[in-house]
Amino acid sequence: MMDLISVIVPVYNVEKYLDQCISSIVSQTYRNLEIILVDDGSTDNCPAMCDAWAAKDSRIKVIHKENGGLSDARNAGMAVATGEWISFVDSDDWLAENFYDILLNAAIENAAEIAASGIIKACEQEACFFGNHYHEITFTPSRAIRTIMNGDGFHAVAWNKLYRCELLNGICFPVGKLHEDEFVMHRLIDRAHVLVLCQNAIYYYRQRAGSIMATWSVKHLDALEAYLDRIHLLEEKYPELYLTDRVIFCGSCVNYYRKLLIVNAGREHLCQVASYRKQVHISLEEWCSLCLKQKIYVAASRVSIGGFARLLNLWRKVDE
User: Fold this and answer.
1) Helix (H, G, I), strand (E, B), or coil: what is residue 125?
2) Residue 260: how many other CB atoms lie within 10 Å
3) Contact 91, 35 (CB under 8 A)
4) Same domain as 171, residue 280
5) Helix 46-56 and helix 18-26: axis angle, to 10°?
6) What percent of the chain has pLDDT over 90?
7) 272: part of which helix (H) or strand (E)?
8) Do 19 and 50 touch, CB atoms closer than 8 A?
9) Are 89 and 13 in a shared domain?
10) What is the SS3 string spanning 245-271?
């Protein structure tokens, strides 16, 4: 008997893109799918479109609920999922037709609990591969987390992956957070024993001008909270990654502070970033082992993150 894959698709006001998304799922070469469309209180034609798709394909289930955000919609889908494997697809994205065939076969052959795909960033005029190419296919949790820290490989996103359903037991996406995936990905990876990266399986990640993730605002600050949680996990279980991630965090705090200055954010948000930075400590011995640029970022962000961020913004204006 072929394993059942539950595909959870949160849907909110994406009528322009929804048909392409669902069509790419129902047309998969791997057929044993349970497709759960979670209408998160859409005010456009999406509710009717979801119902129409369900009438055409018996594998599709539709949940209509009040708007609660992406995390709430994913959690609602997980509550009714019955598959041995679970996958998340954002409703403005789409999949290559062999997406699940490749991921599931690789996961089973390598006894992996998570399989991740390659990502194509798809804009109106062009499409390009997102991240670096890796030659290996099997990864330990430590190696997988390291690729996330590098901003490629497995990526800190929920939607380009296939998960053993047991891995998600007790896991909920945090409602009300903009960077919900960053709060859970390191925890899910830590639960796995083996992971596989199949960059020949393609997830098409649509780039929309004006989307929440494409427009920077103070809401993005919750990413720093998620990064702190990852640092705490690394301190406990992955000491080989602990220093590197703290250095990355210092740089992230500086960059977020710079962006807050550019958008003229309130003092409370600037203080919030400064408070996050003060929660991460790097010893003198550790600091001495860093390269010059890292030493500058770590020290300057600790002494005066505001002054350092303003100086960097000034240099940027001069370069322009």
Assistant:
1) coil
2) 23
3) no
4) no
5) 20
6) 88
7) helix 267-278
8) no
9) yes
10) HHHHHHHHHHHHHHHHHHCCCCHHHHH
